[in-house]
Amino acid sequence: xxxxxxxxxxxxxxxxxxxxxxxxxxxxxxxxxxxxxxxxxxxxxxxxxxxxxxxxxxxxxxxxxxxxxxxxxxxxxxxxxxxxxxxxxxxxxxxxxxxxxxxxxxxxxxxxxxxxxxxxxxxxxxxxxxxxxxxxxxxxxxxxxxxxxxxxxxxxxxxxxxxxxxxxxxxxxxxxxxxxxxxxxx
Length: 186
Fold this sequence. Notes:
The protein is of the alpha/beta class. It has helices spanning 67-75, 94-106, 119-128, 130-138, and strands at 18-28, 36-41, 63-66, 82-86, 110-114, 141-144, 165-168, 179-181. It has 4 helices and 8 strands; from the N terminus they run βββαβαβααβββ. The chain has an 8-stranded mixed beta sheet with strand order 3-1-2-4-5-6-7-8. The model has no long low-confidence stretch (mean pLDDT 93).
């Protein structure tokens, strides 16, 4: 007999905040480790040539929703292990995503965040922007750096170009000495 253990979500009360998204994927195994819920944010200042999600660039595109509505969708699936914030550029809506991240962490889910900004650039932004600091704090894994078409590599795990890194930033804000996962080797 096979017994499936179902996650029971805590009674965390999420702060209901507005957010603009391009969409969600309720179950993904390609946007980070394990079974994940993915939130694609709307709006991106990078506009990388060859971007996988060019429809997310326009800040007025997508649709408006709230963190509470997204969290209600996440709670529907007790089998997910993590939540991924992709884009668009998640750090352009950092405060709302940090709130979703807090709810996820409270419930034992890990967070993966994609950004066209490098970790060093985000650290500088975090000095001035509380939302950026909070999103970095709840993020376990950060994929940093813009997509560079000339460095495109489909064999890479969780990223599209060789300049991008997958960083374990779980130690932030106590330390900025992060570990690079899945290093690119020549």
